[in-house]
TrEMBL record:
This is Phosphate-starvation-inducible E. The chain crosses the membrane at residues 27-45, 65-84, 96-114, 126-143. It is a multi-pass membrane protein. Keywords: Cell membrane, Membrane, Transmembrane, Transmembrane helix. It comes from Richelia intracellularis HH01. Signal peptide: none annotated. Pfam families: PsiE.
Length: 150
């Protein structure tokens, strides 16, 4: 019993415990990166199938209604790639890079704006998206400015 207690004391020492937590974080990040690669591959296959289907089945003149859906699928893949970049940057430097997170958020809001159906949203929704873009843009500018001074 004394050996077990001593073992726990060693494990819960500050440096040892933080080392174990860091190893767990790296393991989880690797699992997430593998899962994100699978998600990206499936999304690319879905985009390809959707693109082929829409190109050959959509009547002439109706493609403009489908193009926003296709743009949304493209941007979903771009967002997934940015998330994968966030994970791999974390694995490289063991630090969450705020600049990458903000850029990913800007891409996600831009995706929403690009595929937005103005007939189905209220003015408040558009104002909210505008405020979100403004806040993220200011945040990006501040982070970018602080990184260039270093």
């Amino acid at each position: 019993m004394k050996k077990i207690v001593n073992r726990f004391k060693i494990i819960f020492q500050h440096d040892v415990f933080l080392g174990l937590i860091e190893k767990l974080e790296v393991f989880v990040s690797k699992i997430l990166s593998i899962a994100m690669v699978v998600v990206i591959a499936v999304a690319i296959l879905d985009l390809g199938a959707h693109l082929v289907k829409e190109l050959f089945t959509t009547d002439y003149g109706q493609f403009k209604t489908v193009i926003f859906n296709i743009f949304g699928l493209f941007l979903n893949i771009l967002i997934a790639l940015e998330i994968l970049e966030n994970i791999t940057a974390y694995l490289r430097k063991q630090v969450l890079q705020v600049e990458l997170v903000i850029v990913t958020s800007l891409i996600a809001i831009s995706r929403k704006i690009i595929i937005l159906d103005l007939n189905k949203v209220d003015g408040v929704d558009i104002i909210g998206l505008g405020i979100g873009v403004l806040a993220l843009s200011i945040s990006y500018w501040i982070i970018r400015a602080s990184n260039t001074k270093i």
